[in-house]
Amino acid sequence: MTKNNVNNTANSKNIRNFSIIAHIDHGKSTLADRMLEVTGTIEARKMKDQVLDSMELERERGITIKMQPVRMIYEAKASTYKLEPETYVLNLIDTPGHIDFSYEVSRALKAVEGSILLVDATQGVQAQTLTTLQMARLPRQGRGEQDMVIIPVLSKIDSPLARVDEVKMELALLLNINPDTILEVSGRTGVGVSHLLDEVIKLIPAPNIDSDVSNKLIQGASGRALVFDFKYDNHRGVIVYVRVIDGAFRRGESLLFAVSNEKFIALEVGTFSPEEMPRDEIRGGEIGYIVTGIKKPGIASVGDTITYVKRPLPALPGYMKPNPVVWASVYPESADDFPGLKTAFGRLRLSDSSFSYEEESSGTLGRGFRCGFLGMLHLEIVTERLIREFDLDLVVTMPSITYKVMLKSGVEQIVYSPHLFPDDGNIAKIFEPWVNVKIILPTSYITSLMPFLYDHEASVLATENFGDSRSTIDIEMPLRELMRNFFDELKSLSSGYASISYEIGEYREADVVRLDILVADEVMVAFTRVVSRRRVEEEAKLQVEKLQKVIPRQMFAFKIQGKALGRIISSESVSAFRKDVTQHMYGGDITRKMKLREKQKKGKKKMAGRGTVNISHEVFLKMMRGE
């Protein structure tokens, strides 16, 4: 098979579909860059770092946010494993490494037959390495193929800080393999990359395609494709990234989203090089894209199945609608920007269906949106994209989670905003989501870690040593506590050596209460939060004192109070501006001054009874940022 006909129709026996799975900052994107160089997919003059990370935000942070497939043509050498010289199509899917995008990663893994497990030789096995590995090892159902092949690889071997032998032993113990079978590469210099590509061809099987069945489907104009990602184009609408499972897909065919039941006509089909390359058709076993022309949000979703309208095939198993884990309200700093924010949310959801939003209003902040996200990083990315791509100035409230509240009347409520939390006297039971957390850190830090875990209401399930001086700790804890600065405090406590991954678990009974912040006897909805009952006094005191420092004085005195459990827990006073009304008087009867001061006192009292305190955006931002 020549390189030319590979670009048109690839023999499925010469296709290898694989991904790279790794912890954040373990060199995944850099290794992908070297693969593109070795295979000649990108000309040397066009090469740049993180070439598959197309978003400016990805390049700045050095992390992968959006999945990016690429099709590489590789000439196998005659001497390699005694194989005849042949041309292979290597389809790589570069996946995100953060836990927030675990569902998207699981769909991408469903689209490939093998994965490169990449571990940094300077850092060793990390928590997210274990989580993604477990995901890759899940039994594969629905298409009769074998379980995914895992190729262990050590990266950054050229670094002066590399611990090659030690990390190899860690990885060997984890996978129960011989350390000598672990490959070594350098994404910076390209050492070992060609050998790794040869191993991909040797170890990862070709797509499991029944040629007779496939030919019948192609002749009958039918097929199925798994959607593992998508993006939005202003002119062409939603472009879905697919792995073709059965049959073939061509331009001009009438197709159907199996889950959303939305019909469309394929405006274009093609593959990635890594830019989009139109082709006549994409067949079973190939990875490519389909231009849908759809410009409505909420239609395309990761995990959906594309099939034909006239001869639809059953949807592929495993589809799951991502559920929001973290909630936050987003408001424009200027009320005039609300229409722009609404438009921005609609356009952003065309390329990211995993966040939700609905309109809400606040007496303090005006009109905005209550949004649901997959996690804290997802929240950061969406809000940062709103700021950059749509030139908006935003106010983002304190993130919260979803609670299930059972009232004494027997009614169950789903509460995702703290100010909607019922009064303590009306509540029978409260349930909150818990998380299963895995922490990897040096053994010497375990002693100082235990009080920290107790403070965050965590329970230790298991502790295991691996390697020479590192331990993995499995814990369970409320998601509420994980969001209470857990990551930053853990990094500080472990001098930056700890890594963490987590999975959302079940709902459990919670002992939490609503904490309201009152300013001049008026509840400030924006500052309301749900906190642990045992920490409510500490939290009330902290918030009241913080607000007292940043709120400006008024013409009348007022109080800032923290209220929970039906009573005032913490209180601070803010004194009024006071003008000396007697400064123009030089002598005379003292009673004249007393009368003026008494008149001023009555005026201040009257003003305090009628006046309100307006909290500016600056005050609100300082409270949110902890300034």
From TrEMBL:
Molecular function, one GO term: ribosome binding
Domain of life: Bacteria
UniProt KW keywords: Cell membrane, Elongation factor, GTP-binding, Hydrolase, Membrane, Nucleotide-binding, Protein biosynthesis
PROSITE patterns referenced in this protein's UniProt entry, alphabetically: G_TR_1 (PS00301), G_TR_2 (PS51722)
Membrane topology designation: Peripheral membrane protein
Catalyzed reaction equations: GTP + H2O = GDP + phosphate + H(+)
Record SUPFAM superfamilies: EF-G C-terminal domain-like, P-loop containing nucleoside triphosphate hydrolases, Translation proteins
Top-rank EC class of the record's enzyme: hydrolase
Main location: membrane
InterPro entries: EF-4 (IPR006297), EFG_II (IPR041095), EFG_III/V (IPR035647), EFG_V-like (IPR000640), EFTu-like_2 (IPR004161), G_TR_CS (IPR031157), LepA_C_sf (IPR038363), LepA_CTD (IPR013842)
UniProt-listed Enzyme Commission number(s): 3.6.5.n1
Role summary: Required for accurate and efficient protein synthesis under certain stress conditions. May act as a fidelity factor of the translation reaction, by catalyzing a one-codon backward translocation of tRNAs on improperly translocated ribosomes. Back-translocation proceeds from a post-translocation (POST) complex to a pre-translocation (PRE) complex, thus giving elongation factor G a second chance to translocate the tRNAs correctly. Binds to ribosomes in a GTP-dependent manner.
GO cellular component: a single term: plasma membrane
Source species of the chain: Candidatus Nomurabacteria bacterium RIFCSPHIGHO2_02_FULL_38_15
Protein family according to the UniProt entry: Belongs to the TRAFAC class translation factor GTPase superfamily. Classic translation factor GTPase family. LepA subfamily.
Protein name: Elongation factor 4
Keyword Plastid: no
Residues annotated for GTP binding in this entry: D25, H26, G27, K28, S29, T30, S155, K156, I157, D158
UniProt signal peptide: none
Entry's Gene Ontology BP terms: positive regulation of translation
Location in the cell: Cell membrane
Domain Tr-type G per the UniProt entry, residue ranges: 13-208
Gene name of the record: lepA
Keyword Hydrolase: yes
Organism lineage string: Bacteria, Candidatus Nomuraibacteriota
